[in-house]
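To: structure desk
From: M.T.
Subject: fold request, one chain
Message: Could you run this one when you get a chance? Sequence is below, nothing fancy, just the single chain.
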Amino acid sequence: MTDRTITKENPYKICFVCLGNICRSPTAEGIFQHLVNERGYQPYFYIDSAGTSAYHIGEPANSKSRDVARKHGIELRSRARKFTVSDLDEFDLILAMDHENMHNIRQLDSRNQYSGKIKLMRDFDPNPGDGAVPDPYHGGMDGFQHVFDIVKRSCENLLDELEENIQKTDP
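Reply: Done. C-alpha cells follow.
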C-alpha cells in the first residue's frame, strides 16, 4: 500500500471520507486514532475525516455514532468538514466509505494524479461484502453497531499493514 517509511518527522496522513462526515467517517477517524494510541504510534500518524457534502459543517458526530463508540471506550471528537481539492495533495491515503463518495472524491482529481491514494475503507476489511460501509442513519442502533464493527476490523487491518513501515527512532 505504501512504500515510504513512516517517521515522526514525516507522519502518515489519512483522511476518512463519507457523505456528511457525521456517522461513518468520524467513526473511522475515532477508531483509527484509538488503535494508534493503543499501540503508541501517535507521532507517526495524522488522522482526519471529511464529507463530500457540506450538509453538516461544524457539527459533532451523530449522537448514535458517539454512543456506540463510547460503549467501546472510544470518543469521537471530530467536527464535520467538507473534503476539498487540497486534501488530495495533503493526505497519503484517502479512504471513502462507499462507491458514491469515492466517485465524488475522484471527480475532484481532474488530472487523475491522486488515484493511487484513493481507496475504499473496505479494501482493508477481511469480509468486504460489496465494498461499501453502509450508511447507518436509518438503521437504528443496530445499524450504527454494524458500521462500528465493519470499520473497526478494517482499521485494525489497515494499521497492521502500515505498522510495517513505521521507523521508530526511540529505543
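Reply (cont.): Residues 51 and 82 are 5 Å apart (CA to CA). Let me know if you need anything else for the meeting.
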